[in-house]
Predict the 3D structure of the following.
Amino acid sequence: MGESVRIEIEGKTYELPLIIGSEGEKAIDINELRKKTGLITYDPGFGNTGSCKSAITFMDGEKGILRYRGIPIEELAEYSTFKETAYLLINGRLPNRAELNQFSVLLNDHSLVHEDMQLFYQNFPRASHPMGILSSMVNATRSFYPELQTAEEEINITVTRLLAKVRTMAAMSYKISRGHKVVYPRSDLAYCANFLNMMFDSPVKPYVIDEDVVRALEVFWILHADHEQNCSTSAVRVVGSGKVNLYAAISAGIAALWGPLHGGANQAVIEMLTDVHASGYKVSRLIERAKEKQDPFRMMGFGHRVYKTYDPRAKIIKGMCHKLLNKLHMKDPLLDLAMELEEIAMRDDFFKENNLYPNVDFYSGIVLRAIGFPSNMFTVLFAIGRLPGWIAQWKESLDDPDWRLSRPRQIYIGSVLNHYVPVDKRK
Ligand code: ACO
């Protein structure tokens, strides 16, 4: 018998199991709570609820720690590639040389998108947001690639297909939205360089691959590859718990990521800084607005549900931002504004008391702008980066003996018994 805790409810004592994670986090197992006590718990936003046991990502929001499969994010950002990190997340360990080569071959083999899918793209209105297009197209992919014979084959090929095709789809949506010819993937280019080439190569201006730019995107994607049970990952797990196919579950994750309080914040930060720059008002005005209780405005790129200190990913991306702009001999007035804003916010009592520090989205948009991405593609780039995490979490849920259909309860606060009144008798 493991450890347990005792709780007292209305004079009666109940014993509930205590779960202890490998890094020492403790949780009360309330599986039997309703059966034993007749009570449920109330936890809006699930801030105190562990929805699963997971061996993929560890984060400590108080200390600013993030590790994938035990490896610190700082080491992965320094030494790994996005492809290798994706393998690590999905398979639970780093690949050896032969496995990595085999993975590259598979990603290359599956990188083409069915030609008929181009017709779908052509018919989206030009002003459509690429996140809406990507979510729809990932879901539609199931129709082009029906279910395979065995469960194992279906999982392995679907995972590879998604990783390989999602960047082709993302680049296609950008090219088509601009009225340009689609650029096909190339077998001689590695994962990130291939994507950059599909995005920016043109018959009139061949794209020149710059290794520092490739590295910047590589690091951006590594930093976004997983973040345990965030909003979009939970969406993937919840939708997946109905045993739907992986394309549909990932499509739900993309839709969840789109929101400005989640992945859409990287676009919202740049729009906020651009507004300040264009209107010429001072950044201190943003700080005042963020503090104003009646004002719904939130400082985009600040705050996090779990990190109550500086987001470790934001530290890395901030350094990357300076490095890339120096290398490209670029000066971005939005970077100056962002630094000024951070400096003022870090001295402000409201930000200090509420533990509001820059999150990963605060500086990432400046890196992406420097590479040449338009702001409406920022969240799509986040989605490509988060894909290995979504897949790893979904795969883990398939093998989890405790896994059940997601179905929370509620506290009903509506009318009590209220009989039907025929239409002619209603007031
Ligand atoms: N600007 C102004 N006030 C804020 C901000 C912000 N960015 N973030 C939190 N606060 C306030 C809250 O309103 C709350 O005030 P209250 O107690 O008076 O109601 C207080 O600070 C504490 O907030 P938390 O409870 O710690 O925040 P919560 O966990 O609910 O929200 C969230 C986290 C949604 C990320 C929030 O900080 C936010 O909206 N940030 C801006 C959007 C953003 O950058 N999102 C990206 C997050 S990272 C990611 O998803 C990839």
User: Anything to note?
Assistant: The beta strands are 4-9, 12-20, 26-28, 57-60, 65-68, 71-72.
